[in-house]
Every structure is written in C-alpha cells, then in structure tokens.
Amino acid sequence: MNISQSIENLVLKFIIFFFDSEANLVTETHNFHPILILHPDGRVGDTIMATGFYRELNKKYPYSYVYVLGNEQVKEVLEPLNFVKEVFIYEKSMMSTLRLFFKLRKRKFKFILNTTDGLKPHGAFLQGQLKACQKIIFNNDQLKSTTKIINFEEGQTHFTSFYENTLNYLFADDRFDMHYQVGVSLSAQQKAETLFEMFPGKKLVVFNAFSGSELGNFSYYNSMQIINHLLADPDKVVISVAGPANTETLLEWRERSLSMFSSDELARWPLLDEVQTLDETFALMEVADFIISVDTSLVHAACALDKKLICVYRQTGEYQNSCQWGPRWNRAHTIILHAPSTPPEVWDINDLSFEELKEAIDEMDGITGSWDASYRRDTLSEKGESRIS
What we know:
By secondary structure, the protein is α/β, with parallel strands linked by helices. It is 38% helix and 17% strand. β9 (290-294), α13 (297-304) and β10 (308-315) form a beta-alpha-beta unit.
C-alpha cells in the first residue's frame, strides 16, 4: 500500500467515525421525491453499463427525478439520454464534496444508491449526511447508515448484476430491460455519415489500441500488424480512435508507418483530427461494420450500439476481468488471455497471438446479423513465445 492509499484509508476511517449517521434516515417519502446515485468514479464504461438501470428507474418512478453524482465524462454519456434529470459534477476534493453537500442537504431522497467501486471518503460522507428513506450500497458493510447491501447472487460475476439485483430488491418479481444505451447527436451523426460516403462500398472498421493502462494497450508493432491485415483487404477502411491522452501517440505511429503502406492503404487509414468527443466517437462506431478494441469503454459502447465486436481481455485466476467487466452481448467475440495463477513480471495484452486475432477478424467478415461467439485461451505461453512476430 502506497502513502496516498494509507492517507485515504485514514481519512475514510475519520469520516466513518464522525459523519456516518443513521440520524439522516427519514421515514416518509412521496412519489415526487428524487433519487440520488453516487457514481463519482467517473469511468465511461461503468457509466454505459449503468444506462439500463437508469432507464428502468425512470420508467418505474415516473414522478421522481433521478440525479447522478459524477464527473464530466459521466455527464457526457448521460446528458444526451432522458433518464437522468441532472449530473452533479464532482471533483476529487473535500471542497467539492462540501459544495455538493450544501447544495443537496435540504432535499429528501427516496433513496441514495452508492455504486462506488470500493468505498471512498466522499461517498461515505455524502451517504451518511444526506437525508433519504433508504441508503443502498454495492458490496460494502462498513457504513451503519446503509439500509441495504447489494451483493452478487450465486453464479453472478458481471458488475451489471449489482444493478439488476438493486432493481429486484426495489421491484420484486418484475422483469427488466438492462441493455446499454448511448446517445449520438445529429451533428456527430452527420459527420460520421459524411465520412462513410467518402468510401462507398467499403467496410469501415473502428480500431482502438488504447485502454488507459500501459500493459493493456496494444504496442505500436502489434497495432501495425492488425492494421496491415485489415488494409490487405481493398474493401476495408480502418478508423483508428484514441482518447486525448493517446492522440499524440497515434499521430506518432502514423508518421512512423508511412513507408509501410501504399498510398491506397494510407488513404484507407485516415486519421480524423476532428473526432475529439465521445459523441463523435460513438457516431463513428455507429456507421462501422465492426469494432476491434482492447478492454476499455468502447467495448460497452459497441454493445450499446448493437455492433459486431472483437475485444481482448487479460485474465488470471484472481483477476477475472472479462467476467466482471466484459461485454454482455451476443455480437461480441471475446479473446481472453489466461495467465498463470502467478502472473509473469511483465504480463501485457501483446502476448496475444496474432493468428488468433486474425482468425477472429476473418470470421467476423463472414458473419451477418446477431451471433454468439466466445473464444477462450486456456493457457498463456512463456513470455515472448506467443508475441506477434
């Protein structure tokens, strides 16, 4: 445990001791009382996975506004949808937490749902100090203000099961539609359709090499192998996408690879400087024939947009990443790299065999309509043995 984690744990214990109070549980609420969801972690993929839950809440409580606490990315995902009244922007500081508390302290909520992946000081403070009839939390028993803990049921592993179980708790014996949803603006759609019209008769493939984690990113060499394989088909156009943190890297890769491709191939691998927002990225995905991505939010966006998808996840005996965060979709081909129970010193996504991914791409070309495919790699060779070469 590093110093910052130790300090955060001490702050959390302090807040739980002094501010986690059952006194702010109220006994009466009305149909019009709002609902508050604490979603301060702000990860785009987590937010997309929760959209079905927000939509169901909106249907079940038509007279109650649903408010969400999150960051700018949460707002960008939820704002185009009509399930959420407002996203309160949270910045990771005690001052931001206090500002939100003073803004919300006079309200009575039907319930507060704390979805934080691991209890954080701000979540503990707001749950303990705001007024609500019920206070529900995912998989945590540290707060006495909690009225219901939502856990996995037997056999459940995916994070969206927490949301399903919450709905089952609130509305027993009912059925719920949990499919993901993203909104795409008309302007972004028009941009994407203009691009699509530039390549009549071609298949557009969106390729994302970046996960936000160094060991989860495809390397330059492996990315070029994938792009080269796609461009070998004259009917394909490859659109590489990257978040703000990886845009420069993508531009550098393009510059380094100019001599590798013909002028026709480079024309079919355009870099789109104007694609700068999630909205524009989602619009590109919407017109694409299929998507290839490492483990990141675009996997869940592809599910929301009902697109064919190839995604690559790392996994060990304890780190069941694909089980908890993988795509819940029957048009996704998930390639899972199973490492030994004790991961090698350097264990990254580039240990994927290119032949395995190439087979998935070629298989994707022959598939139309809804399909169900899941590839499991049961063993991972010694480091370097299965690396693309």
